[in-house]
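Hi there, hope your week has been kind to you so far. Would you mind checking whether the tokens look sensible for this chain? I owe you a coffee for this, so here goes:
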Amino acid sequence: MVQSITRMFDVFEALALAEEELSLTRLHAQLNLPLPTLHRLLHVLVERGYVEQNDDSRRYGPGLRILEIAEAAKRNSRFDLCRVVRPFLQRLTDDSGESSNLVIRHNTKVVYVEQVPSPRSVRMFTQVGHRAPLYCTGAGKAILSCLSTEHLDAYVATVQLERLTPQTLASREDLVQEIVNVRHHGFAVDNEEFEIGVRCVAAPIVDPAGRCVAAISVSGPTTRMTRRRAEELGPQVRHIGTLCSTQLGYGSSIPHN
């Protein structure tokens, strides 16, 4: 019984995590399961809606039931992103004296979904729901740093790098090098690249599978948030991002050098 359940999850995960539909032959080679067993497991998964078979190619892919279950799970308090991250945002604001943000990706932009504002009279305030480009924000660059080389190359090849300030990275080569640096340090700095007078430091948050689901950031006016101050805050923001990831179920620290 346990072996059958394990094999069922092996098939389910192989299809759910693949970037394309998989043929029976490829599944057989990847999982090394007997063909009769694989047929039986796929039949059950298709019947339950977790897997669908393409009528034309006869290949298999994840079914809509996965999305239904995932959407329902997101409503469970155990996995509510804002609920998990908000105490850490408060901790960052208490320690830094600056505004802290939770940011998610939506296509080529970041979206601010939660914020703990600075207690200071002069502070950075970004309205929840505000959107900004990935390439010129700290949170956006933190999210880009988690992309595979293939996906990063695809993003860089198609994005329009508009120079929003004199500090905006306007060449693809500079952007790629910047993301390499972010990967090395484990945190990203927005050095007035999106808005003059504002500096930000950010780090990624990942899910149990290691996929980036959000970024956490601290932003402030450059009169207080100097480049040196941003670099000093970087390791703490990176650490908080790791703690958030752990709370979401990620099993180990986000890799960094």
In short: The longest strand covers residues 212-221. The two ends are 43 Å apart (CA to CA). The beta strands are 51-53, 60-62, 99-106, 109-116, 131-133, 188-191, 198-206, 212-221. The longest helix spans residues 227-247.
